[in-house]
Write a sequence for this structure.
């Protein structure tokens, strides 16, 4: 039984058809959002020499890009709520493209921070949010699968961009490469063009099956009531939207902060993001530290990326099965917990083969978590409020995402060894995993209680309607008789 | 020994000659300070071999009297005597052919070489008959971090070429930069015309900044790490291209994207026109998807309950 948050949709999502094309568009969009900042690191060494800056200054470029990508979340949500996904994604693609083109003429490192970091990051934010949102509008039943497939974009695009960037760099230097990348990133506009807004009005009235009510008459009344109710719901929501408590409410749904599921998700995520990215960033340096040569260390990352790539759609399929879907939050909790266990075990695995085993298991864990990350949020708050939810979540996650790798780096510097950092990351993921298990157990119980209350309420209205009809029929009969 | 004396006197002569014409265009550092052979520091390198061959790398910074010792224990025939021989760069060192007796189940060869300048560096081999040999490769610290792919830069822009000596190797006393001119190397002097070059030297690395690039600037550049014994070279290739080179693929991609987006949007427009004229077909399709959805669904009506969360 899926939680009923999606009851507010008011229409039935197609769950297929053009939806799969939209998934493909989202695949590209999400892929660029996540993989683009990571793939730019190939140019860092040359840019560092060109502008005569230190390593940390050039690493700031990645940070600025990531920060503006996460900070742009709420802006993106507001725009999506207003205009829909398609224009926002296309504008996002143009923004990143402009940023890269301007950067290719850059004369100072500050220029690069602004163009690549700020403008580029914002553009990527305009790609990420709408892609996730539109999947929620097109899919309901097959949504975990759609999400899993769309999130696979990240490793696949990274896999393609990395050698492409290397080739561009060898042939055109960093300036020419930035220019051409500005062109390549315009493919996000193509992805945006594919994101046709879903047809909400051509749906027939949903057939209602009121629980416990028997009899044709009762059904008819109930169904007409249901139609009236759903129409009322839609109009009520529109009223709610316009009668907001101030300007901000029309743009972004701050009442989410009173949503139990949303709060659980938010708190858990803030903690787990501290330990999320650092293990990936430090995998190759850790291997090199243990004496493994550079190529084998890079190969570890390829193994990680490959397992990541394959597990994401599989996770989507698993999430869709009838055993997992109703309790998908537990699946997510398991994924977080499993990540934590992987990191704790990593330093205990000796040698290169130990690292390979870790890379495989970590790839599985990372992919599982990524595929479910936004699906569970959709599951908790419903597709209608998802856009605002994801905007709020990303801006709050900004902090741990930015602080995580430098803090881990500091741990490495203090102890001179990577294993304490991995232990710390393991704890940072284990604790939220357990927290999620407990909180979602409680949440599911509460949701089931609320469901029972609602069903009871429906039963009452149903019976009242039947009684009303019987009285009316009795009256008319009486009148015709009399 | 006499060979090295001859070399030394030749060196002195050359030094006196070169002192007369200080030619800034000649590659190589100024000649090393002259120390008489017997006041050179000494060093010993020994290798014991059990098999057939071995190569030993010897890193040298300063002129030195180097003693090379070879010990071979691998002879199964257990001959009482074996011919020992020294070679430098493949050529037999004069008067080095000797008979080596077996002592304590091994053969020993030892010789002192005066390594004074770049020509003395190279490969020294001790041979035991034709059965075993040990190579000593004498060289100044080599620049490890060599960039094999060319650096690409643009006309009118500037480029920074760097050379670095690893932390594990000793620091050079200074760095020089050269540009390839045909088969020769021309040293780059920053203060000379044209004033487009800038050399920044730090102990372990060096940067050559070439500004206002022109096409003639393309080619091979060499950085030299100067040690008392010799200069280690490393080369980097510079390519200079105009901004039109990346512009061509960029424009091609942009045009492709615009065309694709136009096709997608036009297709959608034509589809929606078809849908609006055939509205009935549309609704029946929707009902079909709906029934499909319901059979897959979980039994609850999706729009009935009003959840207040």
């Amino acid at each position: 039984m899926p939680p009923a948050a999606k009851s507010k949709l008011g229409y039935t999502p197609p769950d297929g058809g053009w939806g799969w094309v939209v998934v493909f568009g989202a695949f590209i969009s999400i892929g660029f959002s996540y993989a683009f900042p990571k793939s730019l690191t190939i140019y860092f060494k040359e840019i560092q020499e060109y502008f005569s800056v230190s390593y940390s200054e050039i690493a700031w470029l990645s940070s600025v890009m990531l920060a503006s990508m996460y900070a742009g979340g709420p802006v993106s949500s507001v725009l999506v709520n207003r205009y829909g996904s398609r224009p926002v994604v296309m504008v996002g693609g143009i923004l990143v493209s402009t940023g890269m083109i301007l950067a290719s003429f850059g004369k100072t490192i500050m220029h690069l921070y602004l163009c690549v970091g700020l403008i580029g990051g914002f553009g990527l934010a305009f790609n990420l949010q709408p892609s996730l949102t539109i999947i929620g509008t097109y899919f309901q039943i097959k949504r975990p699968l759609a999400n899993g497939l769309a999130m696979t974009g990240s490793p696949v695009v990274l896999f393609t961009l990395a050698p492409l960037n290397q080739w561009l760099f060898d042939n055109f230097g960093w300036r020419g490469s930035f220019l051409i990348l500005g062109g390549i990133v315009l493919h996000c506009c193509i992805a945006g063009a594919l994101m046709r807004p879903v047809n909400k009005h051509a749906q027939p009235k949903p057939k209602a099956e009121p629980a416990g009510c028997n009899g044709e008459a009762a059904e008819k009344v109930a169904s007409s009531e249901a139609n009236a109710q759903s129409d009322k719901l839609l109009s009520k929501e529109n009223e709610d939207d316009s009668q907001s408590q101030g300007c901000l409410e029309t743009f972004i749904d701050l009442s989410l902060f009173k949503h139990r599921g949303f709060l659980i998700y938010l708190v858990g995520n803030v903690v787990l993001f501290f330990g999320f990215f650092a293990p990936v960033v430090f995998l190759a340096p850790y291997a090199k530290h243990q004496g493994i040569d550079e190529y084998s260390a890079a190969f570890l990352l390829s193994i990680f990326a490959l397992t990541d790539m394959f597990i994401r759609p599989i996770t989507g399929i698993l999430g869709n099965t009838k055993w997992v879907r109703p309790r998908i939050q537990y699946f997510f909790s398991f994924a977080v917990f499993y990540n934590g266990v992987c990191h704790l075990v990593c330093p205990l695995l000796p040698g290169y083969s130990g690292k390979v085993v870790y890379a495989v298991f970590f790839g599985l864990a990372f992919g599982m978590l990524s595929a479910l990350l936004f699906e569970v949020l959709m599951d908790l708050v419903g597709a209608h409020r998802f856009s605002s939810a994801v905007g709020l979540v990303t801006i709050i996650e900004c902090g741990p995402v930015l602080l995580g790798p430098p803090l881990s780096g500091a741990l490495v510097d203090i102890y001179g060894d990577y294993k304490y950092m991995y232990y710390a990351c393991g704890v940072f993921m284990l604790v939220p995993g357990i927290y999620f298990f407990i909180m979602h157990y409680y949440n599911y119980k509460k949701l089931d209680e609320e469901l029972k209350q609602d069903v009871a309420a429906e039963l009452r209205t149903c019976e009242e309607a039947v009684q009303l009809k019987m009285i009316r029929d009795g009256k008319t009969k009486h009148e015709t008789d009399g | 020994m006499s060979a090295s004396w001859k070399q030394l006197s030749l060196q002195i002569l050359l030094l006196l000659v070169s002192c007369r014409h200080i030619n800034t265009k000649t590659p190589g550092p100024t000649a090393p300070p002259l120390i008489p052979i017997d006041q050179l520091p000494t060093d010993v390198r020994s290798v014991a071999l059990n098999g057939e061959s071995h190569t030993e790398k010897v890193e040298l910074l300063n002129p030195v009297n180097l003693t090379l010792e070879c010990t071979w224990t691998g002879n199964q025939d257990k001959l009482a005597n074996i011919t020992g021989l020294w070679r430098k760069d493949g050529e037999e060192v004069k008067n080095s052919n000797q008979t080596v007796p077996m002592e304590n189940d091994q053969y020993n060869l030892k010789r002192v070489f005066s390594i004074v300048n770049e020509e003395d560096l190279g490969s020294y081999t001790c041979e035991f008959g034709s059965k075993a040999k040990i190579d000593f490769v004498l060289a100044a610290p080599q620049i490890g971090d060599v960039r094999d792919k060319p650096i690409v830069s643009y006309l009118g822009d500037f480029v920074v070429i760097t050379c670095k000596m690893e932390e594990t190797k000793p620091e050079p006393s200074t760095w020089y930069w050269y540009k390839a001119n045909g088969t020769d190397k021309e040293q780059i002097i920053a203060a000379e015309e044209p004033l487009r070059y800038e050399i920044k030297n730090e102990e372990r690395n060096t940067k050559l900044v070439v500004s206002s690039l022109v096409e003639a600037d393309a080619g091979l550049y060499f950085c030299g790490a100067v040690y008392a014994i010799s200069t280690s070279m490393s080369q980097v290739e510079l390519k200079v291209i105009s901004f039109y080179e990346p512009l061509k693929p960029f424009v091609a991609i942009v045009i492709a994207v615009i065309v694709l987006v136009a096709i997608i949007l036009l297709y959608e427009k034509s589809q929606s026109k078809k849908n609006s004229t055939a509205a009935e077909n549309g609704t029946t399709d929707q009902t079909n998807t709906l029934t499909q959805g319901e059979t897959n669904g979980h039994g609850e009506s999706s729009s009935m309950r009003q959840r207040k969360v």
